[in-house]
Design goal:
Shape of chain B: globular
Strand content of chain B: 15-25%
Number of strands of chain A: 11
Largest sheet of chain B: 6 strands, antiparallel
Order of helices and strands of chain B: EEEEHEEHEHHHEHEHEE
Number of helices of chain B: 7
Largest sheet of chain A: 11 strands, mixed
CATH superfamily of chain B: P-loop containing nucleotide triphosphate hydrolases
Radius of gyration of chain A: 31 Å
Number of strands of chain B: 11
Distance between the termini of chain B: 44 Å
Helix content of chain A: 55-70%
Radius of gyration of chain B: 17 Å
Strand content of chain A: 5-15%
Structural class of chain B: alpha/beta
Number of domains of chain A: 2
Oligomer: heterodimer
């Protein structure tokens, strides 16, 4: 029997203890790996959330509101802008793509956004199946919305008034699903797109129908229904546009420009103490998990001290004693590394779906070489630390103590 | 390579025992021939185990010379002495100290590995047969009886064909019958393998059954 086979026999003999050590080690590795990946992937996912939208042009008011409503799609619109004026404002060679957007309805809480086909250019989005709309009441669904609503091409649905579920249904104006977008990782994935004219059409026709049915409506004069858009979103062709375009638009009487990058950076600045606290807590968890892994391994290895001292009495050199201790610790940590990697992959997959459904953020976790090296270095360090202690103890055990016990 | 059989298994001259810089006993000069048994006796705490440790090359004596066959044990470097102990010295522990996680056979082959020797299957067959434990070969060490464990411990001590076997208080927890059986087994196995046997003990039953008795002399 070789010393490596002896190490394996130890694992088999006390498999419960070994499994516990492997499990604790795997949790520690998963915690560290998830943190390493998450710390990078989350901000990247947030940056992807507003996709290619570099500029939002809306009515005068809070720039942050504009970004939250029209780039991240997490708040309510504050008013309308004249579509022509807003599109004219972004009619500049420095703008790569621009599209008006109109919000106001939803389907089961998923926002219906009226726009033009140019919106795909703004987000650099692609149709995954079906096609773009060619007529009124046709819808193209973002990837997350299609998955959550379980809509397929050819399915029909009706929208409801408002941006949250529970509004008045536009029963007489069913939409037909004609296309589904490929995932972009941006807020577009959570939207149900339709022609911008459809949004106005549904509201005008709904109002007309209500007048015919009841003789009155909240929106008495159909002709007064606004012709504007909630905002115009645009992406820059050149980065220098960021220096000129917002200032130029803000100088107009009725338009305001907002940059998602600037506004979100400002927002993150406000919540920085909170993010530092969360990061600190995450690091603490990582330290606890890594310590747990080391302690579990140490407990397993400590149980070997007597046997290792015996091998010493039988003539084994300190190198051979160290080989047995390190072989067993390495087997445990190698198994923990495999299990920890699987746990990390599982956690990130679940986290990606949950995050995508809840916020539209698309995690694209990637473990870089630096992170892999850090993870391996950490695992090897824990292995050495845990194996060295019992090995040193065994090497320095007084063999007469063993003889007399 | 020298012919080991031409030398006494163990020879000592002027061995002085001490601990922490204090000398507390001397060991009368000793010459143990192959196949012979010697008991080192003395009251509890008199230094019997310390003497055994010095003779086995584990702890240096305060003075004197110890030779196993033709090799001056304390003239070797630490790593040479470790290897020499594995190859030429057998140890039988008071509570056997088998490695529970592996089989009886693996306990023996590990003794060879520790000494840097390749496991010898013929030797394994021979020693297991001699100690009548062939059927235990594949059984895990924690699944055998106390009596079987005694035999395995003796087989392990003899597996590398040592010149001398040291046993420390091997009968301290045994009744008369078990003591008689163990001593007969140890003496017979050591004699058959051509090894000298040195037992540290204060047990009268052992003292009555060995070829020679050496008493530690305390230093006032």
């Amino acid at each position: 029997m070789s010393f490596v086979a002896l190490a394996f026999a130890y694992l088999r003999r006390r498999w419960g203890q070994a499994l516990l050590s492997i499990f604790v080690g795997a949790l520690g590795i998963a915690a560290v790996a998830t943190a390493l990946v998450g710390f990078d992937a989350l901000p990247q996912a947030a940056r992807r959330a507003w996709g290619g939208v570099d500029l939002v042009v809306g009515p005068k008011g809070s720039a942050l509101d504009l970004v939250l409503c029209c780039a991240l799609h997490v708040s309510e619109p504050r008013g309308l802008v004249p579509t022509t004026a807003a599109m004219t404002a972004v009619g500049n060679p420095m703008i790569r793509a621009a599209a008006p957007i109109a919000l106001g309805d939803n389907v089961d809480g998923w926002r219906i956004m009226g726009s033009t086909p140019a919106i795909l250019g703004v987000y650099r989005a692609k149709i995954a199946s079906g096609q773009m709309w060619t007529d009124k009441l046709q819808a193209v669904l973002g990837a997350s919305a299609a998955r959550a609503l379980n809509f397929k091409l050819g399915d029909s649905f009706v929208g409801a008034h408002g941006l949250a579920a529970g509004g008045e249904s536009h029963e007489k104006f069913p939409y037909k699903v004609v296309g589904i977008l490929a995932p972009t990782g941006s807020a577009l994935d959570r939207l149900v797109l339709t022609d911008i004219e459809t949004v106005r059409y549904v509201h005008v026709e709904q109002t007309k129908a209500e007048i015919a049915e009841k003789g009155s409506t909240d929106e008495e004069n159909v002709a007064d229904l606004p012709h504007g858009a909630t905002a115009v979103v645009a992406s820059y062709r050149v980065p220098t546009a960021a220096a000129f375009m917002p200032r130029q638009i803000d100088a107009t009487d009725n338009l305001s420009a907002a940059s998602p990058t600037l506004e979100i950076a400002r927002l993150i600045g406000y919540v920085r103490p909170l993010t530092i606290a969360v990061t600190g807590l995450g690091l603490l968890l990582v330290v606890i998990a890594a310590s747990g892994a080391a302690i579990g391994l140490l407990a397993t290895m400590n149980a070997r001290t007597r046997d290792l001292a015996l091998l010493r009495a039988l003539g084994a050199s300190p190198g051979k004693i160290a080989m047995v201790a390190f072989a067993e610790a390495s087997m445990i940590m190698a198994a923990a590394l495999v299990l920890g990697s699987a746990l990390t992959a599982g956690l990130l997959l679940i986290g990606r779906d949950v995050l995508a459904d809840a916020t539209g953020l698309l995690l694209q976790p990637e473990l870089g070489w630096n992170q892999i090296a850090m993870l391996l270095l950490g695992t090897i360090s824990v292995t050495i630390a845990a194996a060295a202690f019992p090995a040193l103890r065994a090497i320095h055990t007084q063999i007469e103590d063993l003889l007399q016990s | 390579m020298s012919d080991h059989s031409a030398f006494a298994a163990l020879t000592t001259r002027g061995v002085v025992l001490g601990r922490d810089g204090r000398t507390f006993a001397t060991l009368p000069d000793l010459k143990v021939a192959r196949g012979r048994s010697v008991a080192i006796v003395g009251a509890s705490g008199s230094g019997k185990t310390t003497a055994l440790m010095a003779l086995a090359g584990v702890r240096a004596p305060a003075g004197g010379a110890i030779c196993v066959e033709d090799t001056a044990l304390w003239g070797l470097s630490a790593s040479e002495r470790d290897r020499f102990r594995g190859r030429r010295i057998g140890l039988v522990f008071q509570s056997f100290h088998l490695i529970d996680a592996v089989s009886v056979a693996a306990n023996l082959t590990l003794a060879a590995r520790c000494a840097g020797l390749p496991p010898d299957s013929e030797r394994m067959d021979h020693i297991l047969e001699a100690l009548q434990i062939t059927e235990l070969r594949r059984r895990r060490a924690d699944l055998i009886s106390h009596g079987q464990a005694q035999r395995v411990a003796i087989a392990r001590a003899l597996f590398n064909k040592p010149a001398v076997v040291f046993a420390d208080e091997p009968t301290s927890a045994l009744d008369d019958l078990s003591t008689a059986r163990l001593l007969a087994l140890l003496k017979e196995a050591a004699a058959n393998e051509g090894a000298g046997l040195v037992i540290a003990t204060h047990d009268r039953r052992v003292i009555d059954s060995v070829d020679e008795i050496i008493e530690l002399r305390s230093v006032q």
